[in-house]
Specification:
Blueprint lengths: L9 H11 L2 H10 L21 E2 L4 E2 L6 H7 L3 H9 L14 H6 L8
Helix pairs in contact: 2-4, 3-4
Amino acid sequence: MKAVNKQIDPLSAFVEVIVSGDIATAIRLLDASPHLARERSARGATRQAAKENFFDRIQHYISEGDTALHVGAAAKQTRIVKELITRGADVRARNRRGAEPLHYAVDGGPGSPA
């Protein structure tokens, strides 16, 4: 049986770091690849592919068109959100559903303060 070499794209890897809360690594990745602040996810949650696009840690899906700023806002990672904005992230970026990072910032998940 042949092993499948599944590569992760740089934005997906960056998003994983943001979700994990590893701010130092997120900033290092931004230093090395500043374009990550402005990139959009090429894929996201669908009815057929919901589970693999859901982050348990932050109780949130990633949608096609989401940016790192969307994810940082959903993860309530204020330091990385500020860093992304400073580096040119579009605060009005809309995903395929029309959601902007601000929408994700105010989304509540289980255990969120009221």
